[in-house]
Amino acid sequence: MIKIDSRSSKPIYEQIIEKIKEDILKGILKPGDKLPSVRELSSMITINPNTISKAYKELERMKVIEVMRGKGTFVAQNYKPVMNEEKMNEMKEHIKKIIIEAHYIGVSKDDLIEIMNEIYKEF
Amino acid sequence: MIKIDSRSSKPIYEQIIEKIKEDILKGILKPGDKLPSVRELSSMITINPNTISKAYKELERMKVIEVMRGKGTFVAQNYKPVMNEEKMNEMKEHIKKIIIEAHYIGVSKDDLIEIMNEIYKEF
Amino acid sequence: MIKIDSRSSKPIYEQIIEKIKEDILKGILKPGDKLPSVRELSSMITINPNTISKAYKELERMKVIEVMRGKGTFVAQNYKPVMNEEKMNEMKEHIKKIIIEAHYIGVSKDDLIEIMNEIYKEF
Amino acid sequence: MIKIDSRSSKPIYEQIIEKIKEDILKGILKPGDKLPSVRELSSMITINPNTISKAYKELERMKVIEVMRGKGTFVAQNYKPVMNEEKMNEMKEHIKKIIIEAHYIGVSKDDLIEIMNEIYKEF
DNA sequence: GTGGTCTAGACCACA
DNA sequence: GTGGTCTAGACCACA
């Protein structure tokens, strides 16, 4: 189930994208599984259908989910990681930012790796 | 020197904040060092003074820099890491997001730690 | 045999129309050949009968196939190309679009003609 | 100037995308040129800003245009053709469709190449 | 002023 | 019922 945090500064459509990706990673959603339709999910979490649609479109673009005409939307059967220099640099930027932030709240390198290990255990 | 990428999706004021924090962490800027004034930096990097001002205000709020009335702006003398649950959770959220993204571009846990180590070497 | 790609953004009824036209052009289907009934084709390719029906109606309207009441549906005996300014303009629009797309994926004019020649060989 | 054909079955945002790509190809728009803002173009062609925005976002995704924070939207400085198997196959599908259509309106291979040459002259 | 997000609601093609 | 397109309009962060 998707929980939206309306207090979060993270856009709703991004929260949806991340949650679905997370659920796939955790195996809660498996390749071939049917996702709720835009309207279904919309009424389930009382978010405007356009917002759901935006999230689904983005996930489709990333080839994480696929729309089967007349059948609905499904978790992609064989997702292949799409790696390119741009995405790699983006990720490095994010990591760098975290490392800086960590330092400023007093979290050392070892602490950070420890935290990462903890989070990896969830998956 | 601060390089602004106006093509980036990251807000300019955030780029400035991050760059200054990074320079402090790397020792390029040391406690007590004088920062250029808002106007100076504004003309140096041809960015709207309001944007510079916003970055400085934010850095001041975080106690990373200090304004000495009539003298200018300086790197704080004794920065003390401010840790609280909220900031910790925020950081964990960011890490979780990175871990998910990493997976979707085909970067394994070991790769990720490797990349983190690389970035830590810069500091 | 008609293969439907339900992942495609192309509507199913259009895929059917195109495939039948293609088969006629290739000589796999010849004038006078009997086509499967709507129900037959529907169960053959597990597609909603309404969708098959829509494709057949469209092909009939184009005079590519003919319905003989009580006997079934057949490839038209003497198809006469129907040319008019509107169809011509439509085709030109499509070609223009392809030329633009080709350029943006780095396909030159010569490449494009080469590709066209290749495809013509299939027919 | 962008002319929208509201009678066309082609979505408005696609018409905008194609027109801008066409103008760049023809040299009417050059790398670095500023595009009208979403609101400007919106009032120029009396189309809802959301629709313009959708077209711009798509063009940005394709790296045909780029948004410079606080400065506006510009034709990308150095567009690099993005080629991949998927796009190639898509183009081939389109060409195949045109070849079939051409045949059914009585346009021969030579005619088709002739028409293509004509259109290439516009660019 | 600039684009980004979100809602509400309408209409349509497709299956 | 399903997603796609479009409009109108609000609110916000950023520069």
Strand and helix layout:
The structure is a homotetramer of 123-residue chains.
Chain A: H1 12-26, E1 34-35, H2 38-44, H3 49-61, E2 65-68, E3 72-75, H4 85-104, H5 109-122
The structure holds a DNA duplex (15 and 15 nucleotides).
Radius of gyration of chain A: 17 Å
Number of helices of chain A: 5
Q: Between the first and last Cα atoms of chain A, what is the distance in angstroms?
A: 16 Å
CATH superfamily placement of the largest domain in chain A: Winged helix-like DNA-binding domain superfamily/Winged helix DNA-binding domain
Overall form of chain A: globular
Largest sheet of chain A: 3 strands, antiparallel
State the helical fraction of chain A.
55-70%
Approximately what portion of the residues of chain A adopt beta-strand conformation? 5-15%
CATH class of the largest domain in chain A: Mainly Alpha
Average predicted local confidence, pLDDT of chain A = 95
**CATH domain fold name of the largest domain in chain A:** Arc Repressor Mutant, subunit A
List unreliable stretches of 5+ residues of chain A: none
N-to-C order of helices and strands of chain A: HEHHEEHH
Q: Which structural category fits the helices and strands of chain A?
A: mainly alpha
CATH architecture of the largest domain in chain A: Orthogonal Bundle
**In oligomeric terms, what are we looking at?**
homotetramer
